[in-house]
Design brief:
This protein is mostly helical and 68 residues long. It is built from 3 helices and no strands. This is Large ribosomal subunit protein uL29.
C-alpha cells in the first residue's frame, strides 16, 4: 500500500482498512505460532501498513482540528 493511496482515502475508509489489517495481523500471528505461515514477509508488511494508516489518520485529525 502506497502513501498516496492512503492519503486519497477518507477517514472512514481508513478506519475500515485499519480494522481489516488488524484482523489479518491477528491471523498471521496464529499462523506463525502454529507453523503454517508461508509468507513471513507479509507480517512486516502488514505492520508497516498499520503504522502508515495510523500516521495519516493522526495527520488528518490534527489538520481538521487546526482548521476549526
Amino acid at each position: 500500500m502506497k502513501t498516496e493511496d492512503v492519503r486519497a482515502k477518507t477517514p472512514d475508509e481508513l478506519v475500515s482498512e485499519l480494522t481489516k489489517l488488524k484482523k489479518e495481523q491477528f491471523n498471521l500471528r496464529f499462523q506463525r505460532a502454529t507453523g503454517q505461515l508461508e509468507n513471513t514477509a507479509r507480517v512486516r508488511q502488514v505492520r508497516k501498513d498499520i503504522a502508515r494508516i495510523k500516521t495519516i489518520l493522526a495527520e488528518k485529525s490534527k489538520a481538521q482540528t487546526g482548521a476549526a
